[in-house]
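Deliverable D5.2: sample structural annotation.
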Amino acid sequence: MLSLNYFLVLSGVLFSIGTAGVFLRRNLISILLSIEIMLNAVNLTFVAFGRALGSADGQIIVFFVMTVAAAEAAVGLAIVISLFRHRESLNPDSFVTLKW
């Protein structure tokens, strides 16, 4: 049986990978995927603590986080598509101003 520490270490590694992806990537879609990895790491932590404490509160919170993540993905992709149509680039350095 796995202890809480294994899940927390895995969650920390996933969150670190997501953070590195946000800071090192030069593509908006890759940055959005890295944010999703970070949200999944937090979800893993919630589920692990819920399991360790013997309550379903962690799973309930994960349900709401997944709902917000789905909305974030939909709105984020819509913004990325709109930016690509106007600038024809997904490099974040080209979006220094919000003027069209």
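Annotation notes: DSSP finds three helices and no strands in the chain. Residues 23 and 31 are 8 Å apart (CA to CA).
The annotation will be released with the project's public dataset once the embargo ends.
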